[in-house]
């Protein structure tokens, strides 16, 4: 049975669900996890958390600041640096929980939070193992593939105008995360739009938008560029071979640079197929095996 919990991240309250480990009578291993691009904890991830808890891992699944049930304004600001700090503060909070061995904490992320796992595997020594599922290895390269040169230049002009508007105290502008073909959005991917329509209907806390200036922060986020620094933390990377959202070749380039213990699992599904059976159970089971080996 999961419990509602809260922790502080740089003065902002983050909401989470804590899943106690099954059959754990002492201090045991634990996992910290959160969603990807604009997602919230109620979307897709509870089955993974339940799988981990059932396997004996105390699991914290949380909403980043600005999203879902967590605090923070402006709402829907997607800041990679803020989200990394939320992960770090989640580790600190979880380390002090009853039943958790602070020397046996792992990280799990998917899509944009899969990218966070690449960054944290390089720079956060408290994670003893990580799983990066369908990671967005380089936001800059991702966006450049979605947009032609003219559209990319237009985006940068729009961001410059929004920065001036914000400086002058105007209202925050927003951008859809996904939208019908031909409409401006952050992720112009048909599969993602279909998936987010379903999420809007089923998950009241989800909002299909981010602040426009989030794109300015997102474009600077390229954890694949420092993947060569992952030399201590064991990494399991799970990829979807039919992924049209986070290019497989960018993730494979990052994986090739890693010198710590590593494994690769490739599934014959599209990006959002990893959240559905049978791929979900396959991915979750392999993650359990990985954490069992290294935590």
Could you walk me through the main structural features you see in this protein, from its secondary elements to its overall organization?
- The protein has 295 residues and is an alpha/beta fold.
- It has one domain: Rossmann fold (3-Layer(aba) Sandwich).
- The protein is built from 9 helices and 10 strands.
- The strands form 2 sheets. Strands 1-2-4-3-5-6-9-10 form an 8-stranded mixed beta sheet, sandwiched between helices.
- α1 links the parallel β3 (28-34) and β4.
- α1 packs across α9.
- The chain is globular.
- The mean pLDDT is 95.
Distance between the termini: 23 Å
Indicate the proportion of strand residues: 15-25%
The radius of gyration is 18 Å
- Low-confidence stretches are none
Total number of β-strand segments? 10
Question: Class by helix and strand content?
Answer: alpha/beta
Query: For the residues shown, what is the average pLDDT?
Result: 95
Question: What strand order characterises the main sheet?
Answer: 1-2-4-3-5-6-9-10
What's the number of structural domains? Answer: 1
Name the CATH superfamily classification. Answer: Alpha/Beta hydrolase fold, catalytic domain
Q: Which topology does CATH recognise?
A: Rossmann fold
Sequence of secondary-structure elements: EEEHEHEHEHHEHEHEHEH
Looking at the overall shape, the CATH architecture is 3-Layer(aba) Sandwich
Mind telling me the CATH class? Alpha Beta
- Helix % is 25-40%
Number of helices: 9
